[in-house]
């Protein structure tokens, strides 16, 4: 019976997401400057005051959720958050679709935190359960076996990631591209595999890795200047709004047009080959 319910639930979910994707194709985008809905934090580019976390506040491995707490969009102490409320706030802050904002908090409740989606609350640090959504070879954190506190940005990796940007916007500002993201992910996976004795990264966590990092290209448009603020300070830049302008927000189906190519381009083998070639050239 449960399996039948699960099949029905998944078919309903993916139909809903595809429906929203279709609506986005036919309706005009939200105008620039009007992506964040009126009456919600961030409307007109005005984000509530940024206050970095204090001793005792709860933060996690997700820079986007930490930024919401640092602006008081989620509770500033990062505690007693309702799953449903988090989904609603992700939708208005970042313009993800209602399907995404239902599915991910639901997954976090059931599979990571192991709590009731409708009735329970959680603290941000509970999301850091290793190999729930959190995984090895992240781009913004050291592996949890080497750094059990996953709440703080790992400055060295973020700086290296942003230094990989090869794209340019129309004003010449640096942009991170799919290729750049795949190249740095290849390095992180190969390096972490070599020095973390407890390293694991199965298929599902490779996909989570590419999904999380692909938000840097979709929601943040690959803009290095914005990403510096978001990833290093866990703060939303003044006047920032989501780069996704679809009326229904970013759906899973549309998101996968970025996530899948990024994942397919990641190659630890290629990275190791290029590294060996560079070292051989140095020795000559
Ligand atoms: C319910 C919603 C969400 C949950 C439960 C969640 C959870 C997580 C977790 C556990 C990580 C750590 C993964 C790792 O080990 O690298 C993570 C990373 C990340 N998330 Fe989220 N997240 C959510 C929403 C979002 C949203 C809305 C965005 C973008 C606007 C976002 C952007 C990111 C980014 C950029 C990373 C860093 C990836 C990396 O270091 O490689 N997340 N998220």
Describe this structure in words.
- 49% of the residues lie in helices and 3% in strands.
- Helix 3 packs across helix 4 and helix 5 packs antiparallel against helix 8.
- The chain is built from 10 helices and 4 strands; from the N terminus they run ααβααβαββααααα.
- The chain starts with a helix and ends with a helix.
- The chain is globular, with a radius of gyration of 19 Å.
- The protein has a single domain, classed as Chloroperoxidase, CATH 1.10.489.
- The chain is mainly alpha-helical and 284 residues long.
- Strand 3 and strand 4 form a beta hairpin.
- The strands form 2 sheets. The protein has a two-stranded antiparallel ribbon with strand order 1-2. Strands 3-4 form a two-stranded antiparallel ribbon.
- The model has no long low-confidence stretch (mean pLDDT 97).
- Protoporphyrin IX containing FE binds next to helix 2, helix 3, helix 4 and helix 7.
- Protoporphyrin IX containing FE (HEM) binds next to helix 2, helix 3, helix 4 and helix 7.
Order of helices and strands: HHEHHEHEEHHHHH
Instruction: Predict the CATH topology.
Output: Chloroperoxidase
Task: Write out the distinct hetero groups bound to the structure.
Answer: protoporphyrin IX containing FE
Q: Any low-confidence stretches, pLDDT <50, length ≥5?
A: none
Number of helices: 10
What order do the strands of the largest sheet run in, or round the barrel if closed? Answer: 1-2
**Class per helix and strand makeup:** mainly alpha
Oligomer: single chain
CATH secondary-structure class: Mainly Alpha
- Strands, total number: 4
State the end-to-end distance. Answer: 67 Å
- State the domain count: 1
Q: In percent, how helical is the residue content?
A: 40-55%
What is the percentage of strand-forming residues?
A: under 5%
CATH superfamily: Chloroperoxidase-like
Give the second-level CATH assignment, the architecture. Answer: Orthogonal Bundle
Overall radius of gyration: 19 Å
